[in-house]
Amino acid sequence: MRLYTHTHTHTHTHTSILQNGSITNLRGALFWIKDFFQGSKIKNDYADIKQIIENRENNVEQLKNILTYARNNVPYYFEIEESKLEKFPIISKKDFMKKGDQLRSKEFLNKENLHKVATGGSTGIPLEAVQDKKKRNRVIASLIYFHNMADFNLGDKYIFLRAWTSNYSSSKLKRVAQNFIPIDVIGMDDKKCEEIRELLKKDKKIKVILGYASAIEILVNYLYDKKDNYTMFNIKTVLTGSDTLKPSTKNKIENMFHCTVCDRYSNEEQGMIGMTMPNSNEFVLNTANYFFEILKVDSDQPAKPGEIGRLVITDLYNYAMPFIRYDTGDLAVSDNKDNIISLKTLEGRVCDLLEDTKNNKISSTTINNHMEFVKGIEQYQVIQEDKAKYKILIVKRNDDFEETVCIDKMKEVLGKDAEIKVEIVNKIGTQKNGKYKTTIKLN
Fold first, then answer.
1. 26-347 sits in which CATH class?
2. SS3 content of the chain, % helix, strand, coil (to 5)
3. Nearest one of 42, 28, 241 to 140, comparing CA atoms
4. pTM of this prediction?
């Protein structure tokens, strides 16, 4: 996610909510008509979200409100005496699993019609969370706002590349209503890429590709191998997420489709957290819905500006199950310390940190920034087997790959005394949730 030069971009014009993706198609129009008769709640939330984010503000008043509410209504927080953020403990996914109802509002325990969401369990710990109606409306309004900024408008037809497990199954009615085609990335091989390629060439109503960055990378590499170009498709926006979007991959997507490419950052338990904007690699954060902290990797002290730290989020609107000072398990860097409204980079997961030969923490993004200089690679995975012992799995793209160059680049980041073995493979497996790890630490 380091800065680099764009080549082709899709012109983006920001207009009002009722012009940007609503009246231009029937589905968008019907959505806003329905919202109007339900009191324009999502439209009003949209306007509030837009104002706060574009004014580069933090939603400080709502932070006080949710902290006070939690102290009075969530058993886990009854002992806290002041509605000050620093008085609240850091909470992890494991804590939510263990504490159960202690972290839910007593007002919502027996209420029906709460929206349930489940994490994918990529770290081995799936979590089911609940959201009240107000929170759900904020999630939807945030999605619409960020998607509009990427020129992805309500009703645009799109394909959605992800692992369509039982947690994320989608009914045919929902697919028709939202105008998308689900594509399972489990077993993303040439046959599946060819099916997607034919679909995109045949159905020019498909304007958007949304999905895992690694799956879209595999698809675009396949299109390059087929000598395709943007005239064969009608894609205006590609939105990536869930795993790392490499700078080289972003360039390839832009060149292939002549489109806007934005990197989404979201999770199931909270919703849309932030996104890179067109022509930028900085993540604009959803400060209307969340308050952000970046804490040191090995303590709960604030990280310095420019230092890699743990991203901790307070959800400002989920009263049914307040997520206060929630450790996402993600690593990030911001140029700010007290007023975090954007991220310079996302640095992968805490559990994916490697260590160099001097025991310094190395993120997957740091590894990627060095591997970007190694030619001829389709995919790679760096595995730390022991203190100074590493194995690199390589799927070659072509004969430009040179093992000595790869090892030299890795020694720059892992240490000159690192013991590195390169292994050429035909394929690198994904996790059960379809996501692809670039770094793995075995001990």
1. alpha beta
2. 35, 25, 40
3. 42
4. 0.86
